[in-house]
Design a protein that fits this description.
- This protein is mainly α and about 230 residues long.
- The chain folds into two domains: about 1-45; about 50-170, Methane Monooxygenase Hydroxylase, Chain G, domain 1, CATH 1.20.58.100.
- It has helices at about 5, 20-40, 50-65, 75-90, 95-110, 125-150, 200-205, 210, 225; strands at about 90-95, 160, 170-180, 185-195.
- The strands form two sheets. Strands 1-2 form a two-stranded parallel sheet. A two-stranded antiparallel ribbon has the order 3-4.
- Helix 5 (about 95-110) packs antiparallel against helix 6 (about 125-150).
- The longest helix has 25 residues, at about 125-150.
- It is globular, with a radius of gyration of 22 Å.
- The two termini are about 40 Å apart.
């Protein structure tokens, strides 16, 4: 579960600085999953039709495109998506660039339906990439849409057209969800959700100088660094 936080190579990053991240959130995810299962009134089931639908979607690349559409190579589509995200939704981005990226992603989603994989199922990285492309397209769209919605710069999110932090966004998360009835490529919706303020006992763990970058004087009035 921790790999969802840092990836399967997270502990091997510079200085191993993601190892604690993996351990903490892996444990939280595991405990949360156990609590969720214990609270269920009955064991969840998966219908045969849902299994058949998932299998059909997974094997679609072997069937090739319908009609006279041009087959799409998964490696080519992947390279174009990668270049688009690097050029237009990079470390420093603008609203105009991200809108361009979203327009291209819509085109990639259409082309994805014609993706084709040769060979057999065993040891077939082209097929694996063809299946992964669905998630890559959805995640890329989520990143671009949420960054476009967040009209400020904060942490690793830097917008050249909104270079300052905005206190109106400090307690807000941008949440992406799938929508629609298309299992192959669902629509992506973006909503802004407000979060509760940080507990005072947690605020006290941080140096007042660091908190001053993000919080107002009124919010920090009871911090020990101010009271002292």
């Amino acid at each position: 579960a921790g790999e969802c936080s840092g990836g399967m190579h997270g502990s091997n990053r510079l200085g191993g600085n993601s190892l604690s991240d993996l351990l903490v959130f892996g444990r939280r995810a595991g405990l949360g999953a156990a609590d969720y299962v214990r609270a269920l009134s009955h064991r969840p089931t998966v219908s045969e039709s849902a299994v058949d639908e998932a299998a059909t979607i997974a094997l679609t690349p072997f069937n090739g495109p319908q009609g006279h559409a041009k087959p799409e190579n998964p490696y080519t589509l992947h390279a174009e998506l990668q270049q688009t995200m690097n050029d237009l939704v990079g470390i420093i981005r603008t609203g105009e660039e991200m809108q361009q990226a979203l327009d291209r992603i819509e085109e990639f989603k259409v082309r994805f339906r014609n993706i084709e994989s040769d060979g057999r199922r065993e040891f077939n990285p082209g097929w694996h990439l063809a299946m992964d492309m669905r998630n890559m397209l959805l995640v890329s769209e989520c990143v671009a849409r949420s960054a476009l919605a967040r009209t400020e710069s904060r942490g690793g999110h830097t917008r050249d057209d909104f270079p300052q932090m905005d206190n109106q966004w400090r307690r807000s998360l941008v949440v992406c969800r799938s929508a629609g009835n298309d299992p192959v490529m669902p629509e992506v919706t973006v909503t802004r959700e407000e979060q509760p303020p940080m507990r005072e006992d947690l605020l006290e763990l941080f140096e007042i100088e660091e908190l001053g970058k993000y919080f107002t004087d009124e919010e920090l009035a009871q911090h020990p660094g101010r009271r002292g």
